[in-house]
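> Could you send the Lipoprotein prediction when you get a chance?

Sure thing. Input:
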Amino acid sequence: MKRVLLLIFTTIIMFQFLIACSTNKNVAFKEFYSNVIGFSKTDEEQAIQQDTILMLTNEEFQRFKDKYFTPREIPMKSHDKEMAILYLQIPSVNSSVQGYRVESINVGNDTLTVNLKQSSVAQVDGIEGFDGTWKWVMLVEVDKTNLKDNMKIIVNK
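Output:
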């Protein structure tokens, strides 16, 4: 009888552990840059093709920043070097660019889910000679404890 109870108890604990491991976990994060950026036709070589990029090391972020941001002279605060960096860009179809802020970030099953909330609208009319696209750009520090290379990134607006 004791063995049966021990087996049942052990099975229950194992199932609870498996359920806890398979559910999404909230991840600590902090936005350290967000703004509207215009990408003109002459920026084609420097335009960032991906809407989401996860950089797990400071070296990856430094290469990214040197390639895309230094020529633009965009003022950025320094980030925590122990955190991963998530780059997000949300294209706009017109000159009224919707701004966002990160509401939550969850990790589960090799997927990073970013939940955004609308925060503002920026009007970018009246820039003479601009022939390109506008994007809301964000850089977010993310706790890299449960992050891996090549995670699928889902952005919910």
